[in-house]
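Milestone M4 deliverable, item 7.
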Amino acid sequence: MTAAGEGGGPVRRQVVAEEVVARITSLIADGRLATGDKLPPERVLARELRISRPTLREGIRALAAVGIVHVKHGKGVFVAARPSDVISRADGAGPAGIASAALPRLRALLFAAALSLAARRLGQASLDATVEHLAAGDDSAPDDGGRALVEGLVRSVGEPDLAPLVDVLWPSGVPAGAGRPLVSDRLLRALAARDVDQAFELAFRAFVPEP
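Output delivered:
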């Protein structure tokens, strides 16, 4: 993951930001960063993760949105909670206190990140099986807001660091509501062709259609 590889506009940069979220979440989940710890300075962390500073900021904003980190202006970014500790519901808001209007975008980013990781990482046999599984619609429950689909995809790409975000964005016991079909023929073709950018764009737009 390099800053030079972040081309493709703001939507493409968002998938890199999601990988930043996964990396930092992993550090917290593994205990390498504890609640109250300060993250390294932006310049240092961007260099260590080999990304641009604007992309790092997008990842930090996503973590702050779900309450995992807290940004103290002039002081830095601090770990506010472990991923497993932020699964709650606030009055008048979505899961973990996220504004309900922001949920489709955050879910879109997670779905798109997981799908693009599948296109890039899976071996051919695993990729073919994933495409076939998605085409069959085995994980497409019409009333779960895409949770089963995204959860299965995160599991198939072997990215446990993203799993806590599924629980945050689709908490158990909180109705997700009916949604539109998320897997299209175009998306399956992009995934089968390992077209990472197209797969990401189509997955993102499945949750957040273009205006």
